[in-house]
Every structure is written in C-alpha cells, then in structure tokens.
Amino acid sequence: MNRDDAKNILLLYRPDTVDVVDPQVTEALSLVKQDAELAAWLRELGARQEILRAKFRQIQAPAGLKEQIISEQAAREKIIVWRRVAALTAVAAAVVVLLTLAVFRFQSAGNDNTLALYQNRMVGAALRVYTMDLATDNPVQIREYLKQNHAPADYVLPAPLEKVATTGCAITSWQGAKVSMICFRTGKPLPPGEQSDLWLFVIDRDLVKNAPSAGPPQLAKVNQLITATWTQGDKLYLLGTEGDEQTIRKLL
Prior knowledge:
Elements: H1 3-10, H2 23-34, H3 36-57, H4 65-71, H5 76-110, H6 115-127, E1 134-135, H7 139-148, H8 159-162, E2 165-174, E3 177-185, E4 198-204, E5 218-222, E6 225-232, E7 235-241, H9 245-249
Antiparallel strand pairs: 1-2, 2-3, 3-4, 4-7, 5-6, 6-7
C-alpha cells in the first residue's frame, strides 16, 4: 500500500468505530505512523471533520418543538410508548444502515478491480495534489525511470500525443500492481502550482476486469475529466484531461 491508497481508505475512516478493525484501515493507519506527510494530511482531515461536527452541533431545534410534542400526548404512558417506538425505530434504522454498508462493502470487495473503479481511482490521483517522482520534459528519461522501477515502460503513444510536452511521471498502484502515470502539459494556462493538465495511466490489461478489447478508445466523463480508455497489446491505457470529447479526440 502506498500513500495514495492509504488516503483513499482513510477518507472513509471514522475514528472510535468498528472501522479500526478493518484490515485495510489497519494497514493504512500503520503507514501513517511511518509517513510524516501522510500523518499531517490525516490530522488536517480530522480537523476539517471536527469543524463540520461543531457546526452541526450548533444547529438548534425549532423553539417550542419539545413542548409541542409533550402537549400532544394525552398521558405520561403515551409519552413512554412514543419514546419506546422512537428508540426501536432508531435501532431499526441503524440496523438498516449497517446492513446497507455491509452489502456495499461486500459488493465492493467483489468488484474492487473493475474498470469503472480503476478509472475513478486514477482520475482521483490526477486531480489530487500529487508530487511527480520524476520531473522532466525528456520522454526517454521518463521511460528509463519507469523501467528501472519496474513500472510499465513499453507503452505506445498515439501519434498526436507524442507531440505534447511531457512534464514528468509518477508511479501509483492498483490492487498492489504498479501503474505508470505520465504527465503532460497541453500549453493552456495552468493554475498556480500545477504542472500538468493531461495524464496517461498505463497498466497491464489483465489486472483490470472489464477492460475493453482491442478497438477504438472508449470516451467517458469521469469526475471532472473527459477520459479515453483503450487496449493495445497487453496494456490498458487511460488518458484524461479537462474539456469535452472533441478535446481528447485530438490527442488520439
């Protein structure tokens, strides 16, 4: 598990709940103890969540609501019955929520390497604040770096994409396998601090369920990016950038 994987898991982590016994959460928290940057990120996340909780606590019930409820009860026995019904309803609701979460986690566990989830995970990596493992505009150096670090390096770029300037690369992961992330710059003005606005992810095709067969790229909007996904040889390619279908077709 790397830092990005840990962040994805910890975004759903709830301290002081049964989440702490989840194997993935346990592994992510173990990584936090070894990674100062990840630990700082988790503290910042916790602080933001605490601010939200404080805001929710400040919400006041409408004036007179309690008195109105009590006044509508004919006798103390009815109040007790109402409280019991409310308590049972709350318990039933909690059970429904827990069962829903259990079903969701079970379904996710069985489909955690599908194409749709892979696309979402990689687009998330591009949109987050990330640090390139190698910053360079030299495509040869990028391939050499990926090869030396046992990430996919024998990828084939579409002819139009070969003409786009590279800014570097990073190695991310998917289900324990390495994914090559090649970063490009289209030439459009970028926000301060950003170096890339076009990303290509390359992974062995067999590692992602429902990967498309050889054929034209499949275009889809994923989060804030327009993406193109295609298979060539034994590799699965995912290209993403901001814009529309016409924007990305020019790069294929």
